[in-house]
TrEMBL record:
Statement: the UniProt record of this protein carries the keyword Lyase: yes
Keywords tagged on the record: Lyase
Pfam families documented for this protein: Pyr_excise (PF03013)
Stated name of the protein: Pyrimidine dimer DNA glycosylase /DNA-(Apurinic or apyrimidinic site) lyase
Source organism per UniProt: Microbacterium barkeri
Molecular-function annotations in GO: lyase activity
Amino acid sequence: MRLWTLHPSLLDRQGLTAVWREGLLAQAVLLGRTKGYTAHPQLDRFRVHADPEAAIGAYLAGVQEEATRRGYRYDAERIAVPPHGEVEAIPATAGQLEFEWGHLLRKLAIRSPALHEAHAARLTRDSHPLFVIVPGDVEPWERGRE
C-alpha cells in the first residue's frame, strides 16, 4: 500500500489508479470493513488524525479531483465520508516528501520515461492538499527508509 504524500498530479496513470485503489482499501480498513491490512504502517498518520474517516475521505477526494481533471471517471460515490468544509491537515515531513519523490522517479524511469524526464527537471515537490509539510526526516513508519 502506498498512500503518497506527493500531489496526485505528479503520478502517472498507473500510479494514480493504484493510489485510488489503495486509498479505497485504506478507507475500508479505517471503517472496519476489512480484516486485511489493519496493521499497515501507512495508516498510522490517518489513525492519529482527530477524524480518520474524514481524513481518508479528503485524501481520496484529492485523488478523485486529479482523475477528473485528466478526464478519468473515478466514482466519487465510493468515498464513504466525503469532505465537507476544511479537514485538518496532516503534518508530513520534508524528508518523507523527498523519499517519495525519489521512489516515484525510480518507478517512472521504468514505466513512464517521458514523465520521468519531465519530473527529473522539477525543483519543487508538491504535496497532496491534505498534508502540510514540516521539517523532518523520513517518517518512522516508512518501510525501506535509509
